[in-house]
Amino acid sequence: PGGTVGKVLGFHSWIRLYLEEKAGRLDYRGYIRPKKGKSGGEDAAAAAAASNAIAAGPPPDASDRVITLQFDWNGAEKYVGTTLVGVSPEFELALFTTVFLVGRRDNLVAWMDVVGGRRLELDAKCFPIARGKVGSCYLETLAGS
Predict the structure, then answer these.
(1) Tens digits of per-residue pLDDT, 86-145?
(2) For residue 58, is it left (φ>0), alpha (ψ between -120 and 50) or beta?
(3) Contact 34, 108 (CB under 8 A)
(4) Cα–Cα distance between 97 and 90 in angstroms, integer?
(5) What mean pLDDT do residues 66-89 have?
(6) In the chain, what's the furthest Cα-to-Cα distance?
(7) Which residues have CB under 8 Å from 138's CB, separation 6+?
(8) Residues 16, 28: contact at Cβ < 8 Å?
(9) What Rg do the C-alpha atoms of the chain give, in angstroms?
(10) Quick one: pLDDT at residue 62?
C-alpha cells in the first residue's frame, strides 16, 4: 500500500489515498495534467516536470480513469504517482496479479471504458523484488488514451 525511504514508494490505490487523506496523514498536492501522448510514471524526468504541470489545464473529470497526482504522506513526498479511479480492489488485484504472472515489466492492457465511451490503452508496469514476489505494479497511459 505504500512505504517510505525518504520519498513515497508505491501507493497506487485510490481507496488507500482517500482513506489516508481522510485520516489527515496525506496532503494532496495536486493533479498532474497528462503530457501529450503519455502520462503517469515514476521516472526522474516526470518528477522534475511535475511541479510545473500541477494546476495546468482543466482538472480531471468523470471520464478520467487513470490520474497522475502529487502528494505528501507522513512527511515524505510522492512527486509523481498514478492511480486508477473508481475501480474495485478486486479489479486492481485481478489486473496486477495477471500482469505479474505474465512476467514482463511492460504489459499492454486495453479495455473499453463504458462511462467515458472510449478505449483505454495502458502500460501496466510490474517490478518484482524477488522471485515470486511483487515489488510494485502501476499503470501509465499510452498515446491516445
Answers:
(1) 888 898 899 989 999 988 899 998 877 776 677 878 899 988 888 878 888 888 877 555
(2) beta
(3) no
(4) 10
(5) 86
(6) 42
(7) 10, 12, 40, 42, 81, 82, 83, 124, 125
(8) no
(9) 15
(10) 62
